[in-house]
Amino acid sequence: MEKRIVFNVDDSNILYSFSNYLSSEIKSIAVNRDIVFLCIGTDRSTGDSLGPMVGYKLTKFHKNNLIVFGTLQEPVHAKNLCNTMDIIKTKYENPFIIAIDACLGSTKTVGNIVIQNTPLSPGSAMNKSLPTVGDLSITGIVNVSGPFDFMVLQSTRLYSVLKLADIISRGIHISIIKLSSEYDSTYNKFYTRLK
Question: Which InterPro entries does UniProt cross-reference here (predicted)?
C-alpha cells in the first residue's frame, strides 16, 4: 500500500517528526539489507542541487559508515544514473535504496519534504526518460512548476535548497542515531555498519 507523508520545512517540529517517521519506515522494511542513499541531481543547477547537497552532508555526518551515492564532488545525474544503479546492484545484494531528489510543485507546496514508500522518477521536470529508482523516496519541493521548468530550476534560490538539504540530512542523521541506539539483532547487518 502506498504511503505518502508531507513535512513542511518551516514546522518547528520537523526534525522530530521527519526522523521518527523515517526511522520507523527503515526499521519495518529494511530487514538485513544494505541501505543505500542515492542522492540525485547536479551541482550545475541550483534547483537540482538538493540531492548532491544532502549526499555531501551525509558523508560529513557519518564519514564512511553510510553507503552514499551522489555528492557535490561526485553527483549522480541523468547521464550516469543507469551506470550508478548497475554498480549498486552489482556491489550490494538486494539493497534497500532511499532515493533523494529535488522536485517542483505548486506555490503552496514549495518548502515541503515528501517521503513515499515508492520509487521516484528523476528528471521528470526536464522531460527526461529515466528509470524509476528507490524503495523509499524523499523529495524536496524547491520551486514552482511552470512552462519553463529548466529556467525555474536554474533560478531557484540557493538558500531555499540549502534549507531543505539541512533538514533532510539532519533528519536522516537523527533517524540513523535512533536506529543504532535501539539495537536489535534482527537488524544487526545495518547497525554494525553504523559503528
Answer: Pept_HybD-like_dom_sf, YyaC
The residue to which cell 520509487 is assigned: 119
pLDDT digits (tens, 9 = 90+) for 135-184: 999 999 998 887 766 677 777 889 999 999 999 999 999 998 888 776 44
Question: What pTM value is reported for the model?
Answer: 0.87
45 HSE (CA, 13 A, CB side): 22
Instruction: Say how far apart CA 55 and CA 77 lie, in whole Å.
Output: 13
- Exposed, middle or buried, 180 (CB in 10 Å: 0-12/13-18/19+)? middle
- According to DSSP, residue 187 is labeled G
Closest C-alpha to 151, from 139, 143, 141, 163: 143
DSSP 39-98: EB--TTSGGG-HHHHHHHHHHHHHTTSSEEE--SSS-B-TTTHHHHHHHHHHHSSS-EEE
Cβ contact 114:99 at 8 Å: no
Q: Of 41, 52, 47, 39, nearest to 146 (Cα)?
A: 47
- Locate cell 511552470: which residue? 146
CA–CA gap between residue 68 and residue 51 (Å, rounded): 11
Grid cell locating 42: 547536479
